[in-house]
C-alpha cells in the first residue's frame, strides 16, 4: 500500500462540554489555550463526563488534520501514527477514522489508557486540557518496524503535530531526516503557545527540517517571546522563521500564520534568499453559524496539506484550508460535514 501522506501526533479522545468563565477561572485556565494537565486539573474529566452538554469526539490535533486530509483526498491517501490504549476510547477513534477512511498504524499500549482532552467550549473560544495517557508512550522504534518504515519510504509528504514535541522529538527528527534526504515535503504545525515557550529546544531541533510551518498568531507571539526576537510584528517573526537554516536546501521554506478572521500571512524565502510576503483574506462565516471552534486550526492544516498532496499552488492550498476550517467549525468538535462536501 502507498499512502502519499504520513502524519504523526498524539491520538486523543475529546471530552467536549460547555463551561463558564468562572469554571475556567476555578482551574486557572485561559479562554483559548491548550495545556498539559496537572494534578489539580484532573477533576475536569469527571465533571465533563457528568455534564449534560458532553460530547465524546475524536481529537488529537494531527489526527484531526489526518482525518480532514483523507476526507478531501482519494481513498488510501493518508496514514496516521500515534499511540493509544486498548480501550473504549480507542474504539471511538477507530470509528471516526473509519468514517473517512483514514488508515492508522497505532502503537498500542496494553496497560495505559488512551489519551483524553477536555475541550472546554466557552462562547467562540475553546480551552484544551490534555492528559496524554498512552499517547505519551509513542516510540520511534514503532516507525522503524519494517512494515511501518515501508510506508514512510513510499510516502511523499509528512505532517507533524508540534504537540508531539512533548512526546518524541526523536520520532519527528527520524521522519525529518528521511524527508530532507529524499526531497519530500515536511510540514510542521507549532500547535500551541506552550510548545514554543516550554519546548523551545526540541522545537529548534526540528525546524531545520520543515519546508512548511503552520501556526496561529498566539503561537507566533510565543515563539517571538521565547526566542527574544526584537521585532515581534508577525511579518518579522514569520520572515525570521522562514530564513532559519534548512537541512534540505532544494526547497524554500514557507511560513503560514493564521489569524482567525484576519488575513492569513504567508512568507516564503525565494532562491535569492528574499522573503516574499503575502496576505490571504479569509471568507468570513456568519457568527451564528459557528457551532464550536475546536479543531479549526487542524482543519485549516488538513485543507492545506490535502492541496499540497494534490500538487496545487500555495495560494489555492491556503484557500482550501480556510474553506475546510469554516466547514469544520459548523460541526460539533473537530469533525467534517457528512454527506461529504467538496471544495
Ligand atoms: C500535547 N497536547 C497538549 C496535545 C493536545 C492535542 N493534541 C495533541 N497533543 N492538546 C489538545 N489537542 C487536540 O487539539 C485539538 C484541537 O486543535 C485536541 O484533542 C483537539 O481535538
Q: Nutshell version of this structure?
A:
By secondary structure, this protein is an alpha/beta fold.
Taken as a percent bin, the fraction of beta residues is: 15-25%
Q: Characterize the overall form.
A: globular
- How many beta strands in the DSSP annotation? 14
Give the averaged pLDDT, no decimals: 97
* Radius of gyration (Å): 19 Å
What is the count of DSSP helices, taking H or I runs of 4+ residues? 13
Can you write the helix and strand succession as a string? EEHEHEHEHEEEHHEHEHHEHHEEEHH
The first-to-last residue Cα distance is: 27 Å
Q: How much helix is in the residues? A: 25-40%
- Weakly predicted, low-confidence segments: none
Biggest pleated sheet = 9 strands, mixed
The set of bound ligands, ions and cofactors reads: 6N-dimethyladenosine
Identify the strand order in the major beta sheet.
6-5-1-9-10-11-12-13-14
Structural class: alpha/beta
Amino acid at each position: 500500500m502507498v499512502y502519499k501522506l504520513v502524519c504523526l501526533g498524539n491520538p486523543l479522545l475529546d471530552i467536549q462540554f460547555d463551561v463558564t468563565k468562572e469554571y475556567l477561572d476555578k482551574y486557572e485556565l485561559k479562554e483559548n489555550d491548550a495545556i498539559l494537565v496537572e494534578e489539580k486539573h484532573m477533576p475536569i474529566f469527571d465533571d465533563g463526563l457528568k455534564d449534560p452538554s458532553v460530547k465524546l469526539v475524536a481529537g488529537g490535533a494531527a489526527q484531526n488534520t489526518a482525518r480532514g486530509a483523507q476526507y478531501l483526498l482519494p481513498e488510501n491517501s493518508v496514514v496516521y501514527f500515534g499511540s493509544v490504549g486498548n480501550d473504549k476510547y480507542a474504539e471511538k477513534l477507530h470509528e471516526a477514522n473509519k468514517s473517512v477512511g483514514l488508515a492508522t498504524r497505532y502503537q498500542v499500549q496494553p496497560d495505559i489508557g488512551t489519551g483524553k482532552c477536555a475541550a472546554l467550549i466557552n462562547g467562540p473560544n475553546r480551552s484544551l486540557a490534555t492528559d496524554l495517557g498512552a499517547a505519551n508512550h509513542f516510540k520511534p522504534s514503532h516507525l522503524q518496524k519494517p512494515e511501518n518504515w515501508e510506508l514512510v519510504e513510499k510516502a511523499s509528504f509528512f505532517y507533524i503535530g508540534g504537540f508531539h514535541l512533548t512526546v518524541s522529538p526523536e520520532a519527528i527528527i527520524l521522519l525529518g531526516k528521511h524527508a530532507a534526504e529524499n526531497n519530500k515535503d515536511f510540514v510542521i504545525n507549532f500547535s500551541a503557545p506552550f510548545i514554543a515557550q516550554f519546548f523551545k529546544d526540541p522545537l529548534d531541533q526540528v525546524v531545520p527540517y520543515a519546508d512548511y510551518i503552520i501556526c496561529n498568531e498566539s503561537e507566533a507571539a510565543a515563539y517571538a517571546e521565547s526566542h527574544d526576537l526584537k521585532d515581534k510584528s508577525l511579518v518579522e517573526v514569520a520572515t525570521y522563521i522562514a530564513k532559519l537554516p534548512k537541512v534540505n536546501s532544494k526547497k524554500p521554506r514557507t511560513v503560514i500564520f493564521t489569524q482567525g478572521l484576519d488575513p492569513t500571512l504567508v512568507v516564503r524565502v525565494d532562491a535569492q534568499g528574499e522573503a516574499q510576503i503575502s496576505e490571504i483574506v479569509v471568507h468570513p462565516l456568519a457568527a451564528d453559524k459557528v457551532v464550536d471552534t475546536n479543531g479549526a486550526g487542524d482543519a485549516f492544516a488538513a485543507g492545506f496539506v490535502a492541496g499540497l498532496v494534490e500538487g496545487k499552488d500555495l495560494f489555492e492550498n491556503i484557500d482550501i484550508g480556510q474553506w475546510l476550517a469554516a466547514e469544520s467549525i459548523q460541526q460539533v468538535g473537530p469533525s467534517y460535514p457528512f454527506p461529504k462536501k467538496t471544495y
